[in-house]
Specification:
3 domains; flat; alpha/beta; ten-stranded parallel sheet; eleven-stranded parallel sheet; homotrimer
Chain lengths: 341, 341, 341
């Protein structure tokens, strides 16, 4: 899907510098680009690669434009412009519509005529698959599941009974949506299962990374709002509510009934306890543990620094004395103050 | 499966207050309940919802009963009673028995006539599937695997060769049981694989959450005892032994040959090193790292508090000086004591 | 595949003590071994089990040989020797070659005549499956994927378009290779997907544990070099580069574009931020967070010790005062020094 530099610039609201009529076929890194390829400079650490880049054009911010002599699309946010341009240039022909002969589709499921159902897919009774949806090989779509139009389930995805995915969902391999929440009541030492009767509801434009799990609600539903982006290997427990456009990085776990606001950015490996509320616009840094509700937007962190093991070990051992140290400082202050008087 | 309030009260050993003959169809939250629905009050934070609840009945503890005027089942442990009542009210007709025509079942596997084998399931040579077991779509059952009666494998579960699941196992999608343990011997920098020859043995009434992995033993077996409940995305390494009725929350990892006792509660995101022993009745809080054996029941924790990033960063940086600070406090104490004399 | 003690000793370059003509059928632990079984002593904590072991032979280091009277293979590294011997003794007949009738293989895929394609496998257009490769049930092999000779994909593995696996790859169930990296550009609060156009390239002799995910590169490729061993539930983000023979334990997450050197050992539950460089020969201990590049080989750690909850809580609370404590110590030192003068 090649385009001229001028066409691409128009697409992203940028200004052309140089030869706008030149044809661009694909994207590349500054270091790797050649004839017919466009690259971008977003992170200043790559600025020095401009000198030797053989890209046919570069997407660049006004403030950096003097560092590059060649053809350019000058635009305020080069990374965003790159995302849009790369999307256009890498567009592929869609999967054909239809049902693969090795799929098992229940006769009481509704499959839109423009949807594609891949090999070894199972679609159970009452499921509804929307227009232009693509259900890749090995996926299991439970009873009464609804998959919105233009959604893609890449492969080996499991969606359990009654869950709903909005339009343009992109679900990567191995994802499980609608597994039972971890609800247990204790009966004199033995665990009694609490039936998990809610659903998972995904809004529009939600992306879910490989092998991430989203549990169904215990009574009411687990809710993932429009535009939420989840990375790989994330755990979302029952009755969690994640607000619009929040993005969460890999290996994070969110315990039951916690409510995360809109436009939050949760880094990787974070743990968030249950029954908390996190307001809109909160950032949590990697591997932090959130043990209380967060009531003000901002950046939050926990944890200790990486050190060479032998240095770390000394400090680590002292952690157990921290309260004692605080008391002794206070005591010293008293003594010193008394003597000073 | 509707029941009268009186029938439900009898089921849970509770006392009826109000109209015991009223018919209940389903469960709901206090806030969401309406005609024909029963709710419960277990967590006092929801007490204020009693005022406006339109539930036809509420399961409630004696001490809270005065806060609700309507029909009630009064019982010591409302959450446990709710679990039992919700189970009865949500019971569904079972899957039919039989083998789906799109399953691949080896002729030398034994499938009980009452079991169900779903679409695209593979059952290999010598596997034994017990009475009333339900093997959902896309599951792979390896050679000589045994699946106990009344077990359910929801979908896309993999059970590798020789592993055994006791009665009433409930295995959620994407679970892998019997993958190779991470056994490696170093041969001048290159890794030589140590064959993983043991099995995984699950007792009765074990539940395993979505995408959790349980590795087979290196020589002897990995053992999960009766009544153990594992949440999603947990890693259980080779030769781990988990005692009866222990419950482990999501994203926890347990390294090889560690032995966890009975009735333990391990929170989410915990790491437990290998070759440790943890006695019965231990609780470990979220994201703690267990680096040594735990010899006494109790609650154990590690980690540091969540703070606003700029405050956290100051304290974080000081962690590297902790040993130095301890020494300087000691030195100050000596000087002050010497001057005092 | 039974062998004599002498044959096994020759295989591992060890010395026989006792009856070299005795036949060994299988391996066992010291405690569990009986007639016809060989065991080993590698970890001194098991030394006391030598006294009561009924193994027909033991693999043992010279320094320990006097603690065992029976038949022995004496060798410098008993664990490595055990690995090799166990491999020989547990060798099984290979899967037959051929394509299972329930597989879906695109006519434009190249399957080597000696390869095996299991039930419900999907192999898409242009994929190439090498000699003696074994693609287990439920695997999905995307367009133009290449699987090297002698590789095994156990079951339910997904390899997305264009990824390449070198010879002798061993990929455990539920693994996802080539899922999209988590690339997002922000457009006034909404996320725009950055197309993920690179591939994942695995070298030779790579092992990947159950449910681990390896994302494709954004523009260039994610690279896993020869001999890398990954445990279960690991996240490898886009454009990560992992050097030869590095081993990484379960539940670790590596963020985008980070480069890890050769012969590193990364323990379980570790987090490694993006765009870092870690040199060859680095060890990182469990649940550490790597926030900066590591430029010297060595052992690195972060984190705080496990304590009984009530003790921990006191120290935990003081962490927020750490910077304040450091300032107060400095102040005390000034006062004391001033008085001393």
């Amino acid at each position: 899907m090649s385009r001229t530099i001028a066409e691409l610039a128009e697409l992203v609201g940028g200004t052309v510098r140089g030869d706008g009529s030149l044809c661009i076929d694909s994207v590349a890194t500054l270091a790797g680009a050649g004839e017919g390829q466009i690259s971008f400079l977003a992170n200043p650490r790559y600025r020095k690669q401009l000198d030797s880049s053989r890209a046919s054009a570069v997407i660049i911010a006004p403030a950096e434009a003097r560092n590059w002599d060649g053809n350019a699309i000058i635009v305020a946010d080069p990374y965003l412009a790159y995302a849009k341009i790369a999307t256009i240039l890498s567009e592929r022909t869609r999967h054909p519509s239809g049902i693969h002969p090795h799929a098992s589709v229940n006769s009481a499921a509704e499959i839109h005529s423009s949807a594609y159902i891949g090999s070894h897919v199972v679609v159970e009774e009452g499921a509804v698959i929307g227009a232009d949806a693509c259900i890749g090989p090995g996926c299991v779509i439970g009873r009464h599941v609804e998959i919105g139009a233009d959604s893609t389930l890449v492969a080996n995805v499991t969606i359990n009974e009654g869950c709903q995915l909005g339009e343009r969902a992109l679900i990567h391999p191995g994802v499980v949506i609608g597994s039972d929440g971890f609800g247990l009541a204790n009966d004199e030492g033995r665990w009694v299962k609490v039936p998990q009767l809610g659903r998972v509801i995904l809004g529009k434009d939600v992306e879910v990374g490989a092998n991430t799990t989203i549990d169904r609600g215990a009574i009411e539903d687990t809710i993932i709002e429009d535009g939420v982006k989840l990375d790989n290997l994330i755990q979302v427990a029952h009755n969690v509510h994640i607000g619009e456009n929040t993005a969460i990085a890999a290996c994070t776990g969110i315990a039951g009934s916690t409510r995360i606001g809109k436009n939050c950015a949760i880094a990787g490996g974070v743990g968030i306890l249950g029954h908390l509320e996190i307001v809109d616009g909160v950032t949590v840094t990697a591997m932090s543990l959130v043990t209380r509700s967060i009531k003000r937007p901002g950046v939050y962190s926990s944890g200790t620094p990486l050190e060479e093991n032998r240095h770390w070990h000394r400090n680590y051992a002292r952690f157990k004395q921290l309260d004692d140290m605080a008391r002794r400082i206070k005591e010293l202050e008293k003594i010193v103050a008394a003597k000073g008087s």
